[in-house]
Write a structure and sequence with these properties.
7 helices, alpha/beta, 2 domains, 13% strand, six-stranded mixed sheet, five-stranded parallel sheet, 257 residues, 15 strands
Length: 257
């Protein structure tokens, strides 16, 4: 148990620039308190079949920290629950090593049936504030879930999911991220990104609209050139060959920035 706590403290120093001392982390970080309750009291009682006592310990932890972890949940090592208020982790949820969860995160179930009904997070996953991951789906190693995303489908390893419902970002944008190269997380090649966001992250719908506007503008230019050529050959292509209000792709692109 003490080994886990030391690892948690070290992981917090690597991921939270506000951390000043081990004593501060041990006494003032609710995520650490919630994990201690889960690993030391609620989880062991659940595995021993003392189900009511396990739920009672988890309820006490929720009162103290604002973090609700079901005693049946499986949580790996060096997991950091930052701020933590409003975090809900369901009974059959599984969280791998080196994961980071921010406040308001829900690992919830979508079925009333017994059995596996909550998500599984691989190693090094970062889940932004307010994100909801629902159902028995797998979030791959080193994946990132953007703040307030609602994830109902599996996310591949190393990918970034944003939006409602969550969509996978294009590969080019996945490589543009805030990183600390000296502190790799997980077993993959990705690095930690606070709140699972970066400066240049774009919603895939916005990216698609930008591409559509560019395509329409180029098509309009080609049609205008064809119409001009046909008029030179004596064909009647109308007064101008263009609409009264031609597409202003640059202005539309600026509106989406």
């Amino acid at each position: 148990m003490f080994k886990y706590v030391r690892e948690d403290i070290k992981a917090i120093f690597e991921r939270d620039p506000a951390a000043r001392s081990s004593w501060e982390i041990l006494t003032c970080y609710p995520g650490v308190h919630a994990l201690i309750f889960h690993r030391l009291l609620a989880g062991p009682c659940w595995r021993l079949g003392l189900r009511w006592l396990a739920r009672w310990f988890s309820t006490i932890a929720r009162w103290m920290t604002g973090i609700e972890i079901h005693p049946g949940a499986t949580i790996g090592r060096r997991v950091f629950i930052d701020h933590g208020m409003g975090v809900v982790i369901g009974e059959t949820a599984e969280i791998g090593d080196d994961c980071t969860l921010y406040h308001g995160v829900t690992l919830g179930g979508t079925s009333w049936n017994k059995g596996k009904r909550h998500p599984t997070l691989g190693t090094g996953v970062v889940v932004g504030a307010g994100a909801k991951i629902l159902g028995p789906i797998l979030i791959g190693n080193d994946a990132r879930i953007g703040s307030n995303a609602v994830v109902v489908r599996e996310v591949p390893p190393g990918a970034t999911a944003v939006g409602i419902p969550a969509r996978i970002l294009a590969k080019d944008d996945e490589q543009k991220k805030e990183v600390k190269p000296e502190t790799p997380v997980g077993t993959g090649t990705m690095h930690f990104s606070a709140y699972a966001v970066s400066r240049d992250m774009n919603d895939p719908v916005v990216l698609a609209l930008h591409q559509l506007f560019d395509h329409v503008a180029k098509t309009e230019e080609r049609l205008a050139a064809v119409a001009e050529h046909l008029r030179g050959q004596g064909f009647d292509c109308g007064a101008t060959g263009q609409t009264k209000e031609p597409l202003d792709a640059a202005s539309l692109d600026k509106m989406l920035e």
